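Reading a protein record of the kind used here takes only a little practice. Think of the row as the fold of the chain written in a discrete alphabet. A record is reproduced here so that you can trace the correspondence yourselves:
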Amino acid sequence: MEKAWVLKRIEEVGVIPVVRAASAEEAIAVAEVIGEGGIPILEITLTVPGAVAVIGKLSKRYGDKVLVGAGTVLDAEAARRCIGAGAQFIVSPSLNIATIELCKRQRIAVFPGALTPTEVVSAWQAGADAVKVFPCNAVGGPKYLRALKAPLPQVNLVPTGGVTLATAKDFIAAGAWALGVGGDLVNTKAINSGERESVVAAARSYVTAVREARTSMSDSQ
């Protein structure tokens, strides 16, 4: 799958679900439920047991229907294993230049983590396709993102860490390219207990919030 298409699809949907499942089976259940809610994207963190194998299983199962990426990737070797398993994008909580360089060579989308302006600029200049601002909510949430975006309008920012449905529109209005969303959306307990409809509804609500925020921004310009 071409990197340009992957980036376009993520931008269109505007939400990257961060999956910390306990097994491949649980991750597949999450993929099905969130996909039903209109989000065909999954970031499988390397904190998931057997994460690389999970990425491989999901990639083979869904093909082009679901974008499967790897999260919590800390170095180039981990990125290489994930790409080999089929990961279509790589996300990190921190800035590792070697990982960015590897992804560039492999033509795989990469979203390194950064927090300060210096880190964000360093990541972007190294070739990041977007920069994960983490932990965004801990340092001011949408207000902090807006402050970063003002001098850096060219940088695609993905706020992660504390993003909720209540703040989704504010983050988009502040300039977010996409939202990294964890527990507020990926509720594995609800799925395992048979309350899948609540997660489907949450996914739909996130998609709607992103669309409405972007429409409002366009109307005001």
In short: The CA atoms of residues 94 and 113 lie 4 Å apart. The chain has ten helices and nine strands. The two ends are 34 Å apart (CA to CA). Residues 196-220 form the longest helix (25 residues).
